[in-house]
Amino acid sequence: MSGHPHDNYPTRLERPADPIARIEPTVWGEGNDGPLSEHDLKTMAANGYLTRPQTLGQNWLRPMGDELARIGGLIDDEDPRIVRERQGGIRSVFEPHLFSDVIAEVIGLDTVLPVARQLLGSDVYLHQARVNLMPGFTGTGFYWHSDFETWHAEDGMPTMRAVSCSIALSENYPYNGSLMVMPGSHRTFFPCVGATPTRNHTSSLVRQEVGVPDQATLTAAANRHGVDQITGPPGGGLWFDCNIMHGSGSNITPFPRSNIFLVFNSVENKLCQPFAAAEPRPEYLAARTTEPFSVQSATA
Amino acid sequence: MSGHPHDNYPTRLERPADPIARIEPTVWGEGNDGPLSEHDLKTMAANGYLTRPQTLGQNWLRPMGDELARIGGLIDDEDPRIVRERQGGIRSVFEPHLFSDVIAEVIGLDTVLPVARQLLGSDVYLHQARVNLMPGFTGTGFYWHSDFETWHAEDGMPTMRAVSCSIALSENYPYNGSLMVMPGSHRTFFPCVGATPTRNHTSSLVRQEVGVPDQATLTAAANRHGVDQITGPPGGGLWFDCNIMHGSGSNITPFPRSNIFLVFNSVENKLCQPFAAAEPRPEYLAARTTEPFSVQSATA
After folding, report:
1. pLDDT in tens, B152-176
2. Subunit composition (chains A, B) (predicted)?
3. Does B277 touch chain A (CB under 8 A)?
4. What are phi and psi of B9, to 5 degrees?
């Protein structure tokens, strides 16, 4: 389907296949390339994730809350960049930096953009950006998956040289659906069974049905790596590798969860044809430019 | 419907009604009536729950695991005492002490039965007993509710003089669907809207649809009381009042949760006609005897 002469990370297969050891490094930059210390970089390389308190300072939280409310109110329900929960509430808004100078400014902060450059050892662009507005009571969570598995299969991302940054805009408790990761799982690629349905993204953003490992694979991975849950106050940043196994449970509490979610890709990791899908996903899910991100270009 | 001349805790109403302050005490016994200290009793009275590590000693855990496997294998699928998840796995087995001398023995332990007697200040009987076998991956959790609300409405329990004891048989992590409680919420009765469907128990044990407070009520209660999550190693006991607001999220991890769940009622709190249902639930969900529990009678 893909027309690629060779695929290092085959997935969406007809039958189960063995896990594949990751080829690329996790950290591409050095300790003097940006804000992260050598210790930070070692932690990221070993665990596949790194927490950075106060990625967004306290003074940002109220304006950000106002901005989320404004964005949630502005946008046309027919806009595909708005993903709703099955019950109707808004779950995500994609490309929020195109609606909001405030969010574009956040992406350009010293605690954000230079960290992405340092981790990936190059200029970076936004592969995907969204704000997630997870309401209390009805948040259904998200099953275990590797983002790279989807980006490789459906977007044509060739190598593991992308990183996500999630900035909490509300308190992450242990019991309101906070993200779980399997630390160290980013060094293994788990091929998944099942062909990609046409226009899979129209349902997979609410509930992923393909591109998830089977239960035996997840059990072995959890027993090997354990599970870490990411909790903490608003403003905290979580950086996690594109291939780390992660997921979240439901949220029956009244306490909502909101975050800004940014995926940075190296400009040297340009997307090609999807490796396991008929057509690439839309640009708002997977940008096909490699123009390095700058606040000016976002808000122009 | 109930024929009761007066109902202190009306529920399953046609329209919303104000919360009602609890009439009865939470703790009925004294510090010299049993294993609990004055401090324990004060904690229980204030919070509505109490944790007791090693309610089941380490030496019990392997035999209990074997016993659960045996019970799960023995029982006829047509037996109504077996409740399955929507996906098919076994969720609960009721009256396990009638299938298992080992479980009957656990109920009679010094860390269990005398605690129940002390909390309720009288002889006690088993209103309900079950083992819960919550598998990894597919545990769907349970929405917020007060048990007393159901026992009053559907079983005819007249007063708040019952207590539950949950004994963990597997590790309760923050992220595998562990029980959440709103500490202090047991002192308020929240009337619920919606009449009880006929034979409601045939579906409510998998997913409760009536007898749950509305979101505004739960939000106010959570903001007032907060949420505590009960975690810890196997063998730990959790005692919680019949009227505390509690629930649990989903479990997408591979780590299962199992427990023995015992509801003790005071022999002075005999069930009468249901307060808001046409017929009482079956005996295996709500025993109508008040014969005090003893290991001998359970295994006779």
Report:
1. 999 999 999 999 999 999 999 999 9
2. Homodimer.
3. no
4. -130, 70
Give buried/exposed letters for A224-241 (b at 16+ CB in 10 A, else e): ebebbbbbeebbbbbbbb
Tokens of B46: 């204030």
Q: What is the pLDDT of residue A89?
A: 63
Chain A residues in contact with B219 (beta carbon < 8 A) = 136, 254
Joined together, the tokens standing for residue B14 give 């046609």
Q: Residue B279, SS3? A: coil
Report the residue of chain B nearest A220, measured CA to CA.
B254
Q: Is B1's pLDDT higher than 60? A: no
Give residues 166 to 195 of A whose Cβ lies within 8 Å of B.
173-175, 177-178, 180
Query: How many Å apart are CA A88 and CA B166, to the nearest integer?
Result: 36
**Distance separating alpha carbons of residues B227 and B224, to the nearest angstrom:** 9
pTM: 0.90
Kindly list the structural domains of chain A, giving each domain's residue range(s) and its CATH number in brackets, ordered by start.
21-282 (2.60.120.620)
What is the per-residue pLDDT across A60-72, written as a single tens digit (0 to 9) for each? 999 998 988 888 7
Torsion on CA atoms B166, B170, B174, B175, rounded to nearest 10:
-120
Mutate to test the interface with B, among A182, A228, A250 (most CBs of B within 10 A): A250
What 3-state class would DSSP assign to B251?
Answer: strand
ipTM associated with this complex: 0.86
Burial (CB count within 10 angstroms: exposed 0-12, middle 13-18, buried 19+), residue A57: exposed
Residue B8 — very low, low, confident or very high, per pLDDT cuts 50/70/90? very high
Q: For position A90, what pLDDT does the model report? A: 73
The SS3 call for residue A83 is strand
Task: Compute the nearest-CA separation of B75 from chain A (Å).
Answer: 26
Residue B254 pLDDT > 90: yes
Instruction: Report the C-alpha gap between B8 and B153 in whole angstroms.
Output: 11
Cβ contact B223:A256 at 8 Å: no
CA distance A286 to A107: 17
Backbone φ and ψ for A278, nearest 5 degrees, come out as: -70, -40
- Please, what sign has the CA dihedral across residues B289, B292, B294, B300? negative
